[in-house]
Automatic annotation (TrEMBL):
Name of the protein this chain belongs to: Aspartic proteinase
Residues covered by the Peptidase A1 domain: 90-519
Active site: 108, 302
Organism: Gossypium trilobum
PANTHER family xrefs: ASPARTIC PROTEINASE A1, BETA-SITE APP-CLEAVING ENZYME, ISOFORM A-RELATED
Length: 522
């Protein structure tokens, strides 16, 4: 390769690449200094418009909770289809070809393919606003031609595979298979500040079985250790947006020691997570109900997601605690009005929670948990929290959420009137169809800490860390960093810990030992 084994640090920036300067340091790390730019409110508008047109996903919802991509021979491709990159904030620069053609990409631990726009992208407006790869200008290009397509939560990209060298920092990954996109429909890719995606997930979810860039770095002996780590700078007053360190960990990026948990299912960087605490109170996640983390939740550390996504039941409880306003769920209100007292009576009679909704006729019981009486209806919150699929009765999931909330209150010895009033309030806090829940910017001091139990440690997030502020002065808006995402078993339920969490906690992706580590970010 003509290149010594070393550690490469790839810097990231918020929302827009402004300047790139490669520097060397005494510690042997190579850093690419990047600037960052404030969040663009226009992206939020594009995200809202895009989220109103999600019916294209229905055709993809065929096998396994309906989420798969055209070349997805593996069954673990569902989370990629849920991803919404519009709110992603951290990007870095790579080069493709010889001489290198520069592209701004999201370094995404929640997917595994590399793709950039192709010069053959003629009919997608988005391609005309981003850098395009020109195979004819690269001395190391090799033709592949195999078709490729990836369905994301807010649109699909399609094109074909090619081979070329990829420059990451000062490393050259030779003969890397990647996707040249010829179709990038929708407003998301048009408004996005990034050109493409560089996936850092496991090969098991790679579309077309393409070997990921990270795997080729290891195979070609370009880095010291099979480890990479993320430091995301959440200080809006500083120029540097963050750094990725390939091949090691920079001790200046964290404080104390990392808490490591094993990867439980390769594909995503998935691990087991304990309870979620609001203040110091558990949310009662571990109830034997579908979608509600019976025995524990899975979680994914995902650098390609800006927010924290989790089961609607828990996100609604968090929204209630922080005063976030969403959209009133009529189904939820109807369940409380018609069946609230019955649910409480059944819980007091020690009826198994997972059987209650089937006993009152809103679900059927399949031997493990309740399912809809209408098997043709698929109930999912896709990407940014909007329910998608064939429209139909939502009473079954609304009932199951009410059971969880009521049982949680009964454990706290609340009266029945207090419980019914509380659950009605939770109905008012259901996340909005756009996935955003607004809060009063002046109320942050009164909001509780929200904590995640990972391994043997509790990881706290303060209101200043989980509330996103858009704009300045009297026009500023504050958005909850929590969004709803309901993934059915066997893959779900799960949490996706995005940049809100990874910004607070330095994250190590240990490929060699198949584990993920978290420590307080410096």
């Amino acid at each position: 390769m003509g290149m010594s084994m070393n550690v490469v640090v790839l810097s990231l920036f918020v929302s827009s690449l402004l300047l790139s300067v490669v520097t060397a340091s005494d510690d042997g790390l190579v850093r690419i200094g990047l600037k960052k730019k404030k969040f663009d409110p226009n992206n939020r508008l594009a995200s809202r418009l895009e989220s109103e047109d999600r019916q294209a996903l229905i055709a993809s919802m065929q096998e396994k909770y309906g989420l798969h991509n055209n070349l997805g021979d593996h069954e673990d491709t569902d989370i990629v289809a849920l991803k919404n990159y519009m709110d992603a904030q951290y990007y870095g620069e790579i080069g493709v070809g010889t001489p290198p053609q520069k592209f701004t990409v999201i370094f995404d631990t929640g997917s595994s393919n590399l793709w950039v726009p192709s010069s053959k992208c003629y009919f997608s407006v988005a391609c005309y606003f981003h850098s395009k790869y020109k195979a004819s200008e690269s001395k190391t290009y090799k033709k592949n031609g195999k078709p490729a397509s990836i369905q994301y939560g807010t649109g699909a990209i399609s094109g074909f595979f090619s081979y070329d060298n990829v420059q990451v920092g000062n490393l050259i990954v030779e003969d890397q298979e990647f996707i040249e996109t010829t179709k990038e429909p929708g407003l998301i890719f048009l408004a996005a500040k990034f050109d493409g995606i560089l996936g850092l997930g496991f090969k098991e979810i790679s579309v077309g079985k393409a070997v990921p860039v990270w795997y080729n770095m290891l195979k070609q002996g370009l880095i010291k250790e099979p480890v990479f780590s993320f430091w995301l700078n959440r200080n809006v007053g500083e120029e540097v947006g963050g750094e990725i360190v390939f091949g090691g960990v920079d001790p200046d990026h964290y404080k104390g020691k990392h808490t490591y948990v094993p990867v439980t299912q390769k594909g995503y960087w998935q691990f087991d997570m304990g309870d979620v605490l609001i203040g110091d109170k558990p949310t009662g996640m571990f109830l034997p109900m579908p979608r509600f983390c019976a025995g524990g939740c899975a979680a994914i550390a995902d650098s390609g997601t800006s927010l924290l996504a989790g089961p609607t039941t828990v996100v609604t409880m968090i929204n209630h605690a922080i005063g976030a306003t969403g959209v009133v769920s009529q189904e939820c209100k109807a369940v409380v009005q018609q069946y609230g007292q019955t649910i409480i009576d059944l819980l007091l009679a020690e009826t198994q929670p997972q059987k209650i909704c089937s006993q009152i006729g809103l679900c059927t019981f399949d031997g493990a948990h309740g399912v809809r009486s209408d098997p043709e209806v698929l109930y999912l919150f896709i990407g940014n929290g909007k329910s998608s699929g064939v429209q139909g009765n939502a009473m079954c999931p609304a009932c199951e959420m009410a059971v969880v909330w009521m049982q949680n209150q009964l454990k706290q010895n609340q009266t029945q009137d207090v419980i019914l009033n509380y659950v009605n309030q939770l109905c008012d806090r259901m996340p909005s169809p756009m996935g955003e829940s607004a809060v009063e910017c002046g109320s942050l001091s009164s909001m509780p800490t929200v904590s995640f139990t990972i391994g043997d440690k509790v990881f706290d997030l303060s209101p200043e860390e989980y509330i996103l502020k858009v704009g300045e002065g009297p026009q500023a808006q504050c958005i909850s960093g929590f969004t709803a995402l309901d993934v059915p078993p066997p893959r779900g339920p799960l949490w996706i810990l995005g940049d809100v969490f990874m910004g607070r906690y330095h994250t190590v992706f240990d490929f060699g030992k198949e584990r993920v580590g978290f420590a307080e970010a410096a």
